[in-house]
Fold this sequence. Notes:
The chain has helices at residues 31-36, 50-58, and strands at residues 7-11, 17-22. It is α+β, with helices and mostly antiparallel strands.
Amino acid sequence: MAHTAGFTVERTKSGKPAFARIDLRKHASFIPVLESNGFKIEDEPIKWTEKMKRAFSEKEFTVLDMDNFWDE
């Protein structure tokens, strides 16, 4: 059997193929086919809660200097 990068076939205990996984980063041409069959492939935006927004606004963030990490 030939090996194709980006495809993985999972088999049952008896050896029959059960699932096929496709790496969509390598095979982006499959995305329109999946979307035309009803799959929704989009990045969902981060759902920021009020508590997270308040925490970011109250806290001051600084970048640490790795050369002086232990001095602080």
